[in-house]
Specification:
Layout: H1 21-30, H2 35-39, E1 45-48, E2 50-51, E3 63-74, E4 83-89, E5 92-98, H3 103-109, E6 115-125, E7 128-132, E8 136-139, E9 149-152, H4 161-173, H5 184-190, H6 195-202, H7 209-242, H8 254-260, H9 267-280, E10 287-292, H10 298-311, E11 315-319, H11 323-339, E12 344-347, H12 353-365, E13 370-373, E14 387-393, H13 400-407, E15 414-419, H14 425-431, E16 436-440, E17 450-456, H15 460-472, E18 476-480, H16 495-506, E19 510-513, H17 519-530, E20 536-539, E21 552-557, H18 565-572, E22 582-588, H19 594-605, H20 609-620, H21 622-625, H22 645-661, H23 667-679, H24 682-689
Parallel strand pairs: 2-3, 5-7, 10-15, 10-16, 11-13, 11-14, 12-13, 14-15, 17-22, 18-20, 18-21, 19-20, 21-22
Antiparallel strand pairs: 1-9, 3-4, 3-6, 4-5, 6-7, 6-8
Helix pairs in contact: 6-7, 7-22, 7-24, 9-10, 19-20
C-alpha cells in the first residue's frame, strides 16, 4: 500500500486550487492526471528575458523586461485595428500593441501617468519601438515576479502558459518532505540538492537556476534509475526464489533434426542453444533474451529450444507480433518438427471458430506440442496441459501485459525472448537488467555482405531501369515507400502511385503490400512473392521485420532520410538472406540535414547492427531508438541515455549492494527506498516485470 506521505503527489489535477474542469482535462492530456505528473513534466526549452532601461538595436527581436511610463491610450475606430498604448522608456518612446483588446481592462492594467514593468518581444515597426501583446505588465513593486529565465513547456491547444504555470506552482506547493533514500557519500560526492529543492530547480524556481537545474536533473534522474534497477533486481530474486520446473532434454528429437540440417549452426547459435539448455535444466525459471542482428539465425535457436522442452514432456508456445510472421515461423518450423513426429499448429485472431476448436482441444489435451500464434495465444479459452516454455519473437513489439498474460498460462514456464533489433549496451542494462543475454554475433555460412548505395531521389527512374537487369538474372526486388497514399500534408511518394508506375514499366509481375490490407490479402501477396510469382514487391514498412525471401537481392528505399537508422537496418535485413550478393539503394531528397546525412553515411559504411544501434543512440537518444516516450527511456521522465549512462551504472551497483545488505529493504534507508519505489510506481511494475 502506498505510504500516506506520498498521497499529496497523487492528488488529482482537477482538485488543484484555481484549476477548473476544462483546464484540468487539458493538463491531463499534456502531463497526466496527478500532481506528480505535473511536477515531473520537464520544459522543452528555456527563454531568457533581458532586463534593460531603454530600447536599442542591440535588443531588437529579443525578449526584454523594462520600466515604462504610460502616456496615452489610443482606442481603435475599427475592431480590426490594433489598440495602442503609448509609453516612454527613459527618453525613448515605446508603443504597446493589442489586437481584439478589451479597452477597459487595459486601462485598468496600464493607468496613465503611472509606471509599469513590462516584458515581451521588442520589435521595430515604421521606425518606432513596440511590444505586441506583452507577456507581463506589473506594478514596479512586483518587478521580481517576472522571471529572468523562463521554462517553456510543450502544451496543447487551449492550454495557456499562464494556466499551466498556475497549476505547476500549486502542484509544487503540495510536494512533501520525503525521507532521504540516496546514499549519503554518493549524494555528497555528486553535490546533489535535497529532493524537494531538486524539483524546484527542475522548473527554474529558486536561486542560481542554471546551476541548480543541472544538478537537480541529475539527482532526479538517478532517483528514477535507482528505483528501476531496484525493481529489476527484486523481480529477478523473487523469480529465483519461486523456482521453475527443470526441463532436461535427452536429444531424441534435437539430434536427428541437427543431423538433417543442410548447414552447420554458427558458434553464436550453438552457444545460445547451450545456454538455453543449461537454464531450462535448473530448478529456476529461465528468463533469457536472445538478441541478434537481422539474419543471424534466431529461428534455429527457437527450434532447438522448443525441441529440448518437448523432449522433456512439455509444451511450447511461440508468439509473433504479426500474422505474417506467425505464419512464416510456422512454415519454417513445420517440416523439421513433423519429421520427428512433433505436432505443431498455429492460432491467430483471424481463425474462425470451426478452425479454432480442434487447435484448442489439441492444445488442452497436450497433443499439440508447439503452438505458434499472435496475441490470440494469451486470450481466454487457450489452455495448455503442460506449458513449459514460452518463446516471444520480436518481444519489444508486445506490451508487458501481453507477455504477462502468456506467462501465466502455465506453472512458471521458462521464458525465452527474441529480438532482431540490436540494442546498445547501455539500453540492455536499462531495459533488461533482469534478464540473461545471449547475442548472435555471426551470420550463417554463405551469407554475402550487402552493398549499400546512396542516390538522390530524382534518379529513381534510372534506378528502376537498373532493376530490369536484376529481374533478368532471376532476382527479386523490394521497393519501399513510406506512405500508403498521397496526402495534402506530405510530398512523400505513395506506395500505390509507385506501384502503378513500376507496373507500367515491368508489367503485371509487380505486387503491392501495405498495412491497410486485410490479413488474407497480405498473406496471399507474400506467398506469391516468396513463390517467385512476382518480381517486384512495392511495400510500406510492413516488411520491416522477419519476412524471409532468400531470392530477394535488391532493396530500394525511397525518402530514406525520413527513416531512423534502426528502421533502415531492419528493412535492409530483408535482403542478403541467400547466397547471392545483394544491393540496397537509399534514395534521398536534398537538401539533407546533418543528422540525416550522418544516418545515410553510417548505413553505407556498416552492415553491423550493433554498431548501427550505438550510432543511433548517439544521434537520436534512447527514446527514439526504442520507440519510447520523449524522455529517453520507457516509463521514465527524468533519465535519458546516453546523457545519464554514468548514473545508470552507479544505480545498478548501488541497488545490488543495497539488496545484498538488506534483501527485504529493512532499516531506515530500506524504508526510504520503499517510498522511492512507490513514488515511481514500481510497486505496480513488479508483476509486469516478471513477464520480461
Amino acid at each position: 500500500m502506498r505510504p500516506a506521505i506520498l498521497n499529496p503527489l497523487f492528488t488529482l489535477v482537477k482538485d488543484l486550487p484555481g484549476i477548473g474542469p476544462k483546464s484540468a482535462a487539458l493538463i491531463e492530456r499534456v502531463a497526466g492526471p496527478h500532481v506528480w505528473d505535473v511536477v515531473r513534466a520537464q520544459p522543452s526549452r528555456v527563454q531568457q528575458r533581458t532586463r534593460i532601461n531603454e530600447p536599442s538595436a542591440l535588443y531588437e527581436d529579443q525578449l526584454v523586461t523594462l520600466p515604462l511610463l504610460v502616456l496615452q491610450h489610443f482606442v481603435p475606430r475599427s475592431p480590426k485595428a490594433p489598440y495602442r498604448v503609448n509609453c516612454m522608456a527613459g527618453d525613448t518612446p515605446v508603443s504597446l500593441v493589442f489586437f481584439n483588446a478589451k479597452g477597459a481592462w487595459l486601462q485598468g492594467q496600464l493607468p496613465v501617468r503611472e509606471e509599469r514593468i513590462v516584458s515581451g518581444k521588442l520589435a521595430r515597426f515604421n521606425n518606432n519601438w513596440q511590444i505586441t501583446h506583452p507577456d507581463y505588465m506589473v506594478p514596479t513593486e512586483e518587478a521580481e515576479t517576472i522571471p529572468a529565465v523562463e521554462p517553456i513547456y510543450p502544451l496543447t491547444g487551449g492550454l495557456t502558459t499562464r494556466v499551466w504555470n498556475k497549476a505547476l506552482d500549486a502542484a509544487l506547493d503540495l510536494v512533501p518532505e520525503l525521507p532521504e533514500w540516496s546514499d549519503p557519500s554518493l549524494k555528497g560526492q555528486q553535490a546533489w540538492p535535497e529532493w524537494n529543492p531538486s524539483l524546484q530547480g527542475l522548473h527554474f524556481r529558486g536561486e542560481d537556476v542554471g546551476g541548480t537545474r543541472i544538478s537537480a536533473l541529475r539527482r532526479l534522474a538517478y532517483d528514477e534509475l535507482l528505483a528501476q534497477q531496484l525493481s529489476l533486481m527484486i523481480v529477478r530474486e523473487r523469480g529465483r526464489r519461486r523456482g521453475g520446473n527443470p526441463l532436461v532434454g535427452d536429444g531424441s528429437l534435437s539430434d536427428p533434426v541437427r543431423e538433417a540440417l543442410p548447414f552447420i549452426l554458427t558458434d553464436s547459435q550453438q552457444s545460445a542453444i547451450d545456454a538455453v539448455r543449461s537454464d531450462m535444466g535448473r530448478a529456476q525459471r529461465m528468463m533469457r533474451l536472445i538478441m541478434g542482428d537481422v539474419g543471424s539465425g534466431k529461428t534455429m535457436v527457437a527450434l532447438f529450444s522448443a525441441l529440448i522442452a518437448v523432449e522433456a514432456g512439455a509444451q511450447v508456445a511461440i508468439m509473433a507480433p504479426t500474422e505474417i510472421l506467425a505464419r512464416q515461423l510456422h512454415a519454417n518450423l513445420f517440416d523439421a518438427l513433423a519429421k520427428v513426429g512433433v505436432r505443431i499448429d498455429i492460432l491467430t485472431g483471424r481463425d474462425k471458430a470451426a478452425a479454432r476448436r480442434p487447435v484448442l482441444a489439441g492444445c488442452a489435451e497436450g497433443a499439440i506440442k508447439v503452438l505458434i500464434g499472435t496475441h490470440a495465444l494469451f486470450q481466454e479459452g487457450v489452455e495448455f496441459r503442460n506449458l513449459g516454455l514460452v518463446i516471444i519473437d520480436e518481444q519489444h513489439r508486445f506490451g508487458v501485459h501481453q507477455r504477462l498474460a502468456l506467462g501465466q498460462k502455465g506453472e512458471a514456464p521458462h521464458m525465452l525472448l527474441m529480438s532482431a533489433t540490436p540494442i546498445p549496451r547501455s539500453m540492455v542494462l536499462a531495459l533488461y537488467g533482469d534478464l540473461d543475454i545471449s547475442k548472435l554475433l555471426t551470420k550463417p555460412a554463405g551469407r554475402q555482405p550487402i552493398t549499400t548505395l546512396v542516390k538522390p531521389q530524382d534518379q529513381w527512374g534510372e534506378v528502376a531501369q537498373a532493376l530490369g537487369r536484376a529481374i533478368e538474372r532471376g532476382d527479386q526486388v523490394y521497393w519501399i515507400c513510406p506512405l500508403v497514399e498521397e496526402t495534402e500534408l506530405s510530398a512523400l511518394t505513395a506506395a500505390e502511385d509507385r506501384h502503378a508506375m513500376l507496373k507500367e514499366m515491368f508489367g503485371p509481375r509487380v505486387a503491392l503490400i501495405h498495412g491497410r490490407m486485410k490479413g488474407e490479402e497480405k498473406d496471399a501477396v507474400m506467398r506469391r512473392f516468396k513463390a517467385h510469382e512476382s518480381d517486384i514487391l512495392v511495400a510500406t514498412t510492413v516488411v520491416e521485420v522477419g519476412v524471409d525471401v532468400p531470392n530477394a537481392t535488391v532493396m530500394v528505399i525511397e525518402h530514406a532520410e525520413r527513416f531512423g537508422l534502426a528502421q533502415l537496418h531492419q528493412l535492409r535485413g530483408r535482403i542478403g538472406r541467400g547466397s547471392k550478393a545483394s544491393t540496397c539503394l537509399l534514395l534521398y531528397t536534398a537538401p539533407l540535414g546533418e543528422t540525416a546525412r550522418s544516418r545515410l553515411s553510417i548505413m553505407r559504411e556498416s552492415n553491423d547492427g550493433f554498431v548501427i544501434a550505438e550510432e543511433d543512440l548517439r544521434l537520436r537518444g534512447a527514446g527514439d531508438v526504442m520507440g519510447t516516450r520523449q524522455s529517453g527511456l520507457p516509463d521514465m521522465h527524468f533519465a535519458a541515455l546516453p546523457e545519464h549512462q554514468d548514473l545508470l551504472e552507479i544505480a545498478q551497483r548501488d541497488a545490488q549492494l543495497t539488496l545484498n545488505k538488506a534483501p527485504e529493504l529493512s532499516g531506515d534507508r530500506g524504508q526510504a527506498l520503499r517510498t522511492l519505489l512507490y513514488l515511481f510506481e514500481r510497486e505496480q511494475a513488479i508483476a509486469f516485470l516478471e513477464a520480461g
